[in-house]
Amino acid sequence: KASTDLLGRLAGLGVDRLGRLQRNGLVEVQEEGLHKLMKLSSPRLRQVLLEDLKPSERARLHLDVAEALATTNPRRLGPLAEVVAEHFLSANRPARAWPLLVEAAQRGIRRNHFPQVLSLTRRALEAADSMDKAPLDAETTALHQRTLSLRGRAMLATGRFHEARTCLKEALDLGLPTEGREGRNTRAALGAAMVETAECNEAAVILEPLLQELEPGDPVRFQTVRALGNAMRLQGRLEESLRVWEDGCEAARQQGLPEQEGLFLLGFGQTLKAFGRLPEARKSLQSAENRLRVRDSRELASCLVELGDLDLLDGSYRRALARAED
Question: Cα 94 to the chain's mean position, in Å?
Fold first, then answer.
């Protein structure tokens, strides 16, 4: 399926020729919004045409389509980046496909489409591996760093903590600049992954200076606060951890982000529980539950487990059982 505009550019199919093909029953034309899309009317016809194409002809056609799509509106290539990359890959042009796959992965990470990001970055690394093994120049090295950073962040978000740690550390070891946005995102994600892999001392070494660098409105600040609060709690630095969680709660309230506030209240309640301040811990965890109920999440499950543990300590076994089932 392709737009009639694109086919006109690629194959010189004007309105008269398209009309003739449509009248002969070879193609169907559909209108979608402002665009007319053409497709072959018969799956059998498609199969015959594809079988008749030599591999070299097929690769040339993929290259023509990729070039046409890439030049139609280069400033708004984002939504088409993955499609164009697929055509470049089919045309045996991995060097052209790699940056487009990374661009599509960047778009996916902004939309929290983490499985898609994992697929895109895997294909990006495969494209890189298939290229000539010449020494990496500065541009290729930067692209490799971005690919690893995006992949590591998606792994962290999907619970693959050890793989995320390896991927993010490799991105930084390759020389990813630590002061830019990509570097800050990578350091925050690496610190969070290290908390999950029980490397709290190493995580704190990364996260404490990073938190000092971040402006109050920086999107990565909330992730850094959560990771540092957890690292400090697990290190036994409970007073410092409480201060970090309190600062996070206040920032989330000021910005009107109740779900983020719930995440900080969860950490605050867990730290109070570690302190033995159980009534305050219960109050904080109940407030966290109310804010996290908007959707099912790993954090909501953790909150219910913590409350169930407090129920057990109180002898409220039925309530603890209900929370466990929930």
Answer: 22
Helix or strand (DSSP H, E) at 75: none
Helix (H, G, I), strand (E, B) or coil at 216: coil
**pTM of the full structure:** 0.84
Band of residue 135 on the pLDDT scale cut at 50, 70, 90: low
The whole-angstrom separation of Cα 18 and Cα 8 is 9
- DSSP state for residue 127 in the 8-state scheme: H
CA angle (232 as vertex; 229, 235 as ends), nearest 5? 150
Comparing CA positions, the residue from 50, 34, 92, 99 lying closest to residue 70 is 99
pLDDT in tens, 244-284: 999 999 999 999 999 999 999 999 999 999 999 999 999 99
- Residue 300's closest CA among 273, 274, 269, 255? 269
Backbone phi, then psi, for 219, in 5-degree steps?
A: -60, -30
What is the Cα–Cα distance from 219 to 211, expressed in whole angstroms? 12
